[in-house]
């Protein structure tokens, strides 16, 4: 009996040792699994969530302007167009040409008096027609920006910019010479005059319906748009 027991002791010790090692491995595995489950999302899931949130972001920018206004031209060329090109998938631009004009309804239709004279009224009508006919936001903005650089000859520049951008301007010209263009400009006038607080400076820009912080917007539109985003795109970090 004594010899038999002594011969089994090494086997017992080895079995206990193996059991102890197995319990350590199982404890480590269990702890690692618990830690993984405690994490809310893995890295790829967070990235996907951020991408979804980024794709859903939209900032609405409405620009109340005049076709012959130097400040409007500067804003288009130095702020609006460069900003749109950087974050076109985030910014929604709405253009409202009218400014400080006056609309008179007569038996023959609409007549307008514009801050920079009859030429500006014609240019505003051409802009209104272009915005109505060119449904693509990018085409609208590129075309209006092209025209506003030299709008002292609105019909000529309408044709020149159209040829440059491969746009058929005949429909725009027809709108301009008919009653449709005047009706469109009259609607822009109603929209402009309903803005609260009332417009005192041209251009006036609203971001998501708000017209505060005009000085900051006119100076750096991109920064003001980026401040309203929850997920910041790379273009805002430059």
Task: Kindly describe this structure.
The protein is mainly alpha-helical and 238 residues long. The chain is 60% helix and 12% strand. The protein is built from ten helices and five strands, in the order ααβαβββαααααβαα. Strands 2-1-5 form a three-stranded mixed β-sheet. A two-stranded antiparallel sheet has the order 3-4. Strand 3 (102-106) and strand 4 (109-113) form a beta hairpin. Helix 4 (118-133) packs across helix 8 (179-193). 30% of the residues are buried.
What is the typical, i.e. mean, pLDDT?
85
Task: Give the uncertain stretches in residue-range form.
Answer: 36-46
Rg, rounded, reads 33 Å
**Total strands:** 5
Order of helices and strands: HHEHEEEHHHHHEHH
Which percent range fits the helix content?
A: 55-70%
Biggest sheet layout:
3 strands, mixed
SS summary, helix count:
10
Strand content: 5-15%
Distance between the termini: 86 Å
Q: Describe the global form.
A: globular
Structural class: mainly alpha
Physical arrangement of strands within the biggest beta sheet:
2-1-5
Keywords:
single chain, 238 residues, mainly alpha, three-stranded mixed β-sheet, two-stranded antiparallel sheet, 10 helices, 5 strands, 60% helix, 12% strand
């Amino acid at each position: 009996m004594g010899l038999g027991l002594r011969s089994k002791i090494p086997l017992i010790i080895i079995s206990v040792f193996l059991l102890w090692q197995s319990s350590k491995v199982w404890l480590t595995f269990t702890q690692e699994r618990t830690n993984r489950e405690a994490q809310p999302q893995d890295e790829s899931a967070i990235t996907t969530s951020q991408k979804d949130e980024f794709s859903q972001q939209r900032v609405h920018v409405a620009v109340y302007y005049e076709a012959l206004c130097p400040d409007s031209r500067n804003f288009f060329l130095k702020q609006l167009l460069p900003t749109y090109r950087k974050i076109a998938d985030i910014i929604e631009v709405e253009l409202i040409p009218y400014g400080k004009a006056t609309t008179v309804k007569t038996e023959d239709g609409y007549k307008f008096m514009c801050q920079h004279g009859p030429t500006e009224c014609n240019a505003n009508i051409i802009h209104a027609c272009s915005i109505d006919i060119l449904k693509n936001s990018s085409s609208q903005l590129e075309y209006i920006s092209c025209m506003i650089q030299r709008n002292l000859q609105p019909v000529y520049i309408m044709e020149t910019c159209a040829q440059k951008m491969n746009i058929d301007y005949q429909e725009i010209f027809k709108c301009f010479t008919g009653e449709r263009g005047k009706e469109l400009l009259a609607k822009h006038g109603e929209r402009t005059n309903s803005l609260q607080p009332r417009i005192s400076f041209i251009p006036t820009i609203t971001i998501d319906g708000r017209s505060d912080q005009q000085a900051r917007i006119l100076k750096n539109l991109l920064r003001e748009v980026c401040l309203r985003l929850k997920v910041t795109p790379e273009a805002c970090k430059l």
